[in-house]
């Protein structure tokens, strides 16, 4: 699968549309019929799809591949992205609350990326952290279904917080596209 310059050959599992990650019938993000009703449900759907996309970009890789910093000089890795998004989910709860800020999960600036090691226990812990922090932020926001409500010390609108979450995942899914392609050549939307 590798070429002479040691870069992986590009490939996709998709056969119907070879520029896609998976064939439409195999893509769990594919849904038939009309989209959800209402702004809150629409925003939630986009967030769920981006969360799933990140997981899909990481599927099938071992701890070394997930921890690999495949786009030097960047310290970014797929595992680092998982840890970063867990950290960001936790921080968003600080925006919602008037309480003292929650402590960081991994330490000071960039520790989410810099602390990545190629160990399965670290991978497993990162996925657990991400699931826990996503669920906690989702639960905190469920108490505020009015998208125009202003929350937290800074009075941020719930709508702005939801859109910012989508933007954060979308941006990092773009990074995940490049990181994954450099790890094993797999490409797709």
UniProtKB/TrEMBL annotation:
<protein>
    <recommendedName>
        <fullName>DinB family protein</fullName>
    </recommendedName>
</protein>
<dbReference type="InterPro" id="IPR007061">
    <property type="entry name" value="MST-like"/>
</dbReference>
<dbReference type="InterPro" id="IPR034660">
    <property type="entry name" value="DinB/YfiT-like"/>
</dbReference>
<feature type="region of interest" description="Disordered">
    <location>
        <begin position="1"/>
        <end position="42"/>
    </location>
</feature>
<dbReference type="Pfam" id="PF04978">
    <property type="entry name" value="MST"/>
</dbReference>
């Amino acid at each position: 699968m590798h070429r002479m310059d040691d870069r992986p050959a590009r490939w996709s599992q998709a056969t119907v549309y070879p520029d896609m990650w998976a064939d439409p019938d195999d893509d769990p993000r594919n849904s038939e019929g009309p989209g959800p009703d209402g702004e809150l449900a629409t925003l939630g759907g986009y967030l769920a799809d981006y969360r799933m996309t990140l997981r899909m970009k990481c599927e099938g890789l071992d701890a070394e591949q997930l921890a690999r910093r495949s786009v030097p000089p960047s310290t970014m890795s797929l595992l680092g992205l998982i840890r970063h998004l867990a950290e960001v989910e936790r921080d968003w709860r600080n925006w919602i609350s008037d309480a003292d800020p929650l402590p960081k999960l991994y330490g000071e600036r960039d520790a989410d990326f810099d602390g990545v090691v190629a160990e399965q226990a670290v991978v497993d812990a990162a996925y657990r952290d991400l699931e826990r922090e996503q669920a906690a932020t989702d639960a905190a926001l469920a108490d505020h279904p009015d998208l125009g409500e202003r929350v937290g010390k800074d009075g941020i609108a719930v709508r702005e917080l939801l859109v910012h979450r989508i933007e954060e995942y979308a941006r990092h899914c773009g990074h995940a596209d490049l990181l994954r392609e450099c790890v094993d050549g797999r490409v797709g939307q």
